[in-house]
Design goal:
The chain has 375 residues and is of the alpha/beta class. The protein contains 12 helices and 15 strands. It has 3 domains: 125 residues, NIF3 (NGG1p interacting factor 3)-like (Udp-n-acetylmuramoylalanyl-d-glutamate--2,6- Diaminopimelate Ligase, Chain: A, domain 1, 3-Layer(aba) Sandwich); 112 residues, Udp-n-acetylmuramoylalanyl-d-glutamate--2,6- Diaminopimelate Ligase, Chain: A, domain 1, CATH 3.40.1390.30; 102 residues, Alpha-Beta Plaits (2-Layer Sandwich), CATH 3.30.70.120. One of its GO terms (molecular function) is metal ion binding.
Length: 375
């Protein structure tokens, strides 16, 4: 009987194609947290956090992978002890052979990620990225490869994170030509002889590289390329990346009052209480959203003419700034604006796995709770 279970590293690769690690903030820690990359996986549990509750559910449901939004290992660990909270979770996960993987700020910035799901829950239309990635995020890599090694090198680059353009991956352009070189004394040429000019049929391979992935891509290029000295060019690009970035901004089909939007948030996001900045009867139509902590986007939301920003974790001085800018705020809380990732990731992974040779059951955690109690 054919084994259709993917390995953990296969699922990590699939997840990274959907939500590239290069999109994550520099301070973040995304991807594999705990686990054996070669482990076979047939059941996944998706949760907001890797905690005692979600790990217990993964164990009870016989899931080999716990996929979370928030990293279990956020900062470097000086020790792993069963006597502290994170250490005991790591011990439990290893003992029960449950891998832990997270998609955090890369999921926030990606297309069809957290903020698109949040915009959809609030029924926004004409949705755009609120704060797109800065120009310079992408580089073009041009490398010259012997024709019979073209595919091998291309696949190595794609596996390292090159070749992604919006909702497409493995993007590249190839053209053929004649390369020439003369190996000098002390060289060890793959083709040709020392002191003799050699002409070789080569492929000029061009692809895109996210700047944060450059070191990894170049390492894989040098490993896969057969030449002793690899000829390649790196071209900085000023292309805007409008489909990737933090937050979203869109419009309602018709204006509602701020309090009516608050009630919609309570219904759609499952939160019991919200904090408002602005007049409750104020009409709002152009809506900015950012799951989790979005106070850093107050200025951008105001500049783009948003009537209100829906987010979480608003502090006192954030509220004062928004008030002074004439921007209303709806603080629905960190938990409520992010717990929607469970259903969102389940749907996205199910679609992606349908087009793959693998068979995996995907479940979502139950009884996840906001750590805050409102009285």
């Amino acid at each position: 009987m054919k084994d259709n279970r993917p390995r953990l590293q296969d699922l990590c690769g699939l997840l990274h194609r959907l939500y590239p690690p290069a999109l994550a903030e520099s301070w973040d820690n995304v991807g594999l947290q705990v686990g054996d990359p070669m482990q076979k996986i047939d059941r996944i549990l998706i949760a907001l956090d890797a905690d005692v509750n979600s790990l217990h559910q993964a164990r009870q449901r016989q899931c080999q992978l716990l996929l979370t939004h928030h990293p279990l290992i956020f900062k470097p660990l000086s020790r792993i002890s069963s006597q502290d909270s994170s250490g005991s979770l790591i011990f439990s996960a290893i003992r029960d052979q449950i891998a832990i993987v997270c998609a955090h700020t890369n999921l926030d910035r990606a297309a069809d990620g957290l903020n698109d799901w949040l915009a959809a829950h609030l029924r926004l239309e004409q949705v755009e990225v609120l704060q797109p990635l800065s120009p310079g995020y992408l580089l073009k890599l041009v490398v010259y490869v012997p024709a019979d090694h073209h595919q091998t090198v291309a696949e190595a680059l794609f596996a390292a994170g090159a070749g992604q353009l919006g909702r497409y991956d493995h993007c590249a352009f190839a053209s053929t030509g004649q390369g020439s070189f003369r190996p000098l004394a002390g060289s060890d040429p793959f083709v040709g002889q020392v002191g003799v000019t050699t002409e070789v049929e080569e492929v000029r391979l061009e692809t895109l590289v996210p700047r944060p992935q450059l070191r990894r891509v170049l390492a894989q290029l040098l490993k896969a390329h057969p030449y002793e000295e690899v000829a390649y060019d790196l071209l900085p690009l000023d292309n805007p990346v409008p489909h990737l970035g933090l937050g979203r901004i869109g419009r309602l089909t018709q204006a509602v009052t701020l309090i009516e939007l608050a009630e919609r948030c309570k219904t759609e996001l499952g939160c019991h209480q919200l904090r408002l900045v602005g007049e409750a009867t104020r009409p709002v139509r152009k809506i900015a959203v950012c799951g989790g902590s979005g106070a850093s986007l107050i200025g951008e939301a105001s500049r783009q003419g948003a009537d209100v920003l829906v987010t979480g974790d608003i502090k006192y001085h954030d509220a004062c700034l928004a008030r002074d800018l004439g921007l209303a705020l709806l603080d629905a809380g960190h938990f409520a604006t992010e717990q929607i990732i469970c259903a969102g990731l389940q749907q996205a992974l199910t679609r992606a796995l349908t087009a793959s040779p693998w068979s995996v059951a995907i479940e979502t955690a139950q009884q996840q709770q906001d750590p805050f109690t409102f009285i």
